[in-house]
Prior knowledge:
22 strands; about 425 residues; mainly beta; 8-stranded antiparallel beta sheet; 7 helices; 5-stranded antiparallel beta sheet; SH3 type barrels
Amino acid sequence: MTFDGIDRIARTLLYEGYLLFPYSATSLKNRLRASFGELVPAGNVGRTAQASETIVEVGARTSLQLRAAFLQPVKRQVFDVSGAPIEAIERGDARWFSWQEAREVVVEHGPLEWNRIGPHERPLILELGAEPIDETEVIAGSDGAPLGSVRRTAEALEARLAVSARRDDDWPEGVRILTIELRNACHGAGDATLRVLHSAHVAARVEGGAFESVIDPPERLRAVADRCESDGAWPVLVGAHGDRSLTLHSPIILYDYPEIAPESPDDLFDGTENDELLSLSILSLTDAERRAMASTDPRAAALLARIEARRAHLEPLHGSIRAMHTQPSTRPMQVRAGDRFVKVGDSVRIRPSGRDPLDTALAGARATIVDIAVEVGGREHAVVVLDDDPGRDFGLAGLGIGHRLFIDVRELEP
């Protein structure tokens, strides 16, 4: 049992919002790390746990595998030669900033036999976490003399997965609602910002069974889907279309079988943004801004190098049209105005029902219908040009916004 086929979408979730343009630590929006799926220690402001429910059909040999992933915050503090904390060290074009990096943590559990998964009152508890970090790098000048140091520290993280299932006698045989809760279990004193699980999410794989969509369930399971509740995470089917062995419990609401466009080759940490525009924006950075970007984070430096290497080959980022269909026109050829039908070319008199200044000015005016328009809700309008408009020729030619008026057909008199 593996999670092949979902790595790209899961990684996109993990790093969504990790760094935002212009990708530098000096930018206000990058100074404080915030993420989707942020789980804080109990007693702090924010969400401590996320839970999601999905439908699964099980049999005698069903097993379940779980993969939890999150980013562990890593404090990067710069010190001068005396050991005093400072904002940055510079050596030529290179700079080292005090900032908060992150380390990727992925923990798998399973395969778990289905009979190990109990009801809500007795969930299966799975422990996970991350080891502490304390590393120091000495920064030397071009002459070899020390300029200062960079210390990276991270606190040990504790988390807990609670897995349970429930059934109802009214449901089809073998149908269960699977509940997966991921909780930040850190406790004790310390810097709470270093004990946050960032971008936390869970993936689940079933063997000898099948998941069902909670977004678009089959009719026989619609009542079961209505019983599913999620808080802080949203379960979707992932993998190849039609595959029902994998779900992703995402902190961002997605549709079933989400995909990253094949034209999107880079992780820009902003999955809903236009890759081409972001790439061009990066290429437009000044030399100083590029140095700041490269010095902020190893991932930002790698992104800058990839974009610069692709400078002359941005055309594939335009994207592609994968499917196209035409929508048959529903515009009527004629509409009813009073007791008669009118059409394009007919002369009408405007009888406004309102009493605002424009209604008063248009009352009794003669006009010619040049088009018929229908709102999404079905309300019909005649597009008219006033007969005494000095710019009537522009209106008839479709030139000039001010020379055409949209009039409700109920306010027209043939």
